[in-house]
Write a structure and sequence with these properties.
This protein is α/β, with parallel strands linked by helices and about 325 residues long. The chain is about 40% helix and about 15% strand. The chain has a 9-stranded parallel β-sheet. A two-stranded antiparallel ribbon has the order 1-2. The structure holds zinc ion.
Amino acid sequence: MVQVQTFLGPREPDELGTTLIHEHVFVGHQELDLNFPHVEWDAQQALESAVSGFERLHSLGVRTVVDLTVLGLGRDVRAVQAVADRVPVNLVASTGYYTSNVLPAYFHTHGPGRLVDGPDPLVEMFVADIEKGIAGTPVRAGMLKVVTDREGLTEDVTRVFTAAAVAHQQTGVPITTHSSPALRNGLDQQDLLAKQGVDLERVVIGHSGDSEDIDYLRTLMDNGSTIGMDRFGMEHVLPDERRVDTVLALLRLGYADRMVLSHDAACFSRVTPPSWRAREAPNWHMENLPRRVLPMLQRGGASESDIHQMMVVNPRRILEPATRS
Ligand SMILES: [Zn+2]
């Protein structure tokens, strides 16, 4: 059987259990941290708080959490390793690049036909992260992450997608996107990835739960992808009641096998620090689904088997690397 990579080594897909497929442990910015440290960031305190958070999550039945913090969001695999070493939840690392517009200048001077001619460093990094380990550690990535937003498919964003498609085809590791559903741009993402030969069944169109446009969401799923209803608790964007109504409507239409549920929350994020979250988005944390949202779904008519499908079966199917063709 093909195994899924976690911070503590490979796991059989059946061991993954209830999975939150789109979350973040520490979202930071190393250059800002060096020069303009955030007043709320304390590495030791953040570690302790993440450890107790994942312990509580485990007691609520969650067994696996995918950390989609890639480059551009301050990925620090050693900091997350220190958490993973102490918690009973499987943590899965990811690779990719979070940019909706331009890459750092390094990538403009390095690559095929560029000033410092050679292979695309993005492809080299993504494949090495998946096959060898991230940043000199033995931690291997189990997911690829790409982004489009308002700026659309810029030259650099297209390059990231292309590199992710190549790495996906070489390794079988799935792709998750950050999309902006108000722009219906999950369709552009599918179009580009399909042109690059990616099987859309291996793609999660992330942040689809920000949308209430049933026709748009059905089209993404009919094209083969799973949609990420992955921002529960982000009530400053859309209240959970309305997110729940959309999931229930799609369940009634028979799409239980094409949706995954998560929060896009973080143990600590410099972008939206703890004091802001406590004030403006008090439900935006990883316990929101087990404590509050899953019961809302059940009261609205979702069955035990619908919940199991979305929380266990679908994440396992996606995370299990496809065998190379
Ligand atoms: Zn995210």
